[in-house]
Amino acid sequence: MRTSAMVFGALLAVAGLIWIAQGLNLSWAPRSFMTADRTWVVLGAAAAVAGIGLVGWGRRARPR
Predict the structure, then answer these.
(1) Does residue 49 belong to any structural domain of this protein?
(2) Does the residue 48 lie in any domain?
(3) Total-model pTM
(4) Mean pLDDT of 20-39
(5) Structural domain containing residue 26
(6) Would 32 be classed as within a structural domain?
(7) How many CB atoms lie within 10 A of CB 62?
(8) Cα–Cα distance between 43 and 31 in angstroms, integer?
(9) Distance in angstroms (rounded) separating the CA atoms of residues 18 and 9
(10) What is the largest CA-CA distance in the chain?
(11) What percent of the chain has a predicted confidence (pLDDT) above 90?
């Protein structure tokens, strides 16, 4: 459970950062329907925070 939580959290955090980049219309971000839409900045930030929290929870969880 710890490993899967940490992996999923890391993937969620990276996806959130990409969503933020797309919402801010950064030049290196992939183009999609999210480009230059500020909604994705907020959703990406929430996803990144949740992902970081999940990684933190996975690191603190007691192994069985």
Answers:
(1) no
(2) no
(3) 0.87
(4) 90
(5) 16-41
(6) yes
(7) 5
(8) 17
(9) 14
(10) 45
(11) 70
